[in-house]
From TrEMBL:
InterPro entries tied to this protein: SLC12_C, SLC12A_fam
Organism of this sequence: Triatoma infestans (Assassin bug)
Swiss-Prot/TrEMBL keywords: Membrane, Transmembrane, Transmembrane helix
Protein name: Bumetanide-sensitive sodium--chloride cotransporter
PANTHER family: SODIUM CHLORIDE COTRANSPORTER 69, ISOFORM E (PTHR11827:SF103), SOLUTE CARRIER FAMILY 12, CATION COTRANSPORTERS (PTHR11827)
Record keyword Cytoplasm present: no
SLC12A transporter C-terminal domain: residues covered: 1-171
Membrane-spanning ranges: none
Origin superkingdom: Eukaryota
Amino acid sequence: QKKGIIDVWWLYDDGGLTLLLPYIISTRRNWSECKLRVFTLANKKEDLVYEQRNMASLLSKFRIDYSDLKVIPDITKKPMEETSLLFDSIIKGFINESADNDDGVYVNDAELSAMRDKTNRHLRLRELLTENSINSNLIVMTLPMPRKNVVAASLYMAWLEILTKDMPPIFVS
């Protein structure tokens, strides 16, 4: 690879691994001409400037050169119908209303309803990834962390599938 783009999606503080890995990759000869773009999330529009300063300060402390820093303000916006339908097609084979689901393979409507906000966040994140990073050479993203015994394995895997489906190579850390 001569020139390209490495996108970093910093979703929450993971100690810096999500920033360090793309930086190390960009020091290799094949990736050295790639631009490093950093995306992070703001919970409220009022936090945009604050979050941008914090991230710029963190990148400076790590001595990481970047070409662009973008704070995403609208993660809580409702996902588009098309994205919701794509998710429904992924999860439909794993919906089962039977009570004996101790192995966590299946998810029921009650669990889907309980996790609706978190699911919508992942659907919206997929839209933002598509909007901003579809032409990138590599995407490095903070791995969504499930709560043990709270999120069914099939639901968690559906979240990962919706984030990575038809995207450039994604490295989740």
